[in-house]
Design a protein that fits this description.
By secondary structure, the protein is mainly α. It contains one helix and no strands. 0% of the residues are buried. This is Putative prophage protein.
Length: 36
């Protein structure tokens, strides 16, 4: 794995909130690809 600079999306978010947000983005991307 390459070490990259961390990307700060929203510094005020907690880890749990970021995790949930990422899952929403991933699910949205996967859902749109599957035509849902």
């Amino acid at each position: 794995m390459q070490k990259r600079e961390p990307v700060i999306i929203a510094p005020d978010y907690t880890d749990d909130e970021l995790y949930e947000w990422m899952h929403q983005k991933i699910n949205a991307a996967a859902g749109s690809e599957m035509g849902q």
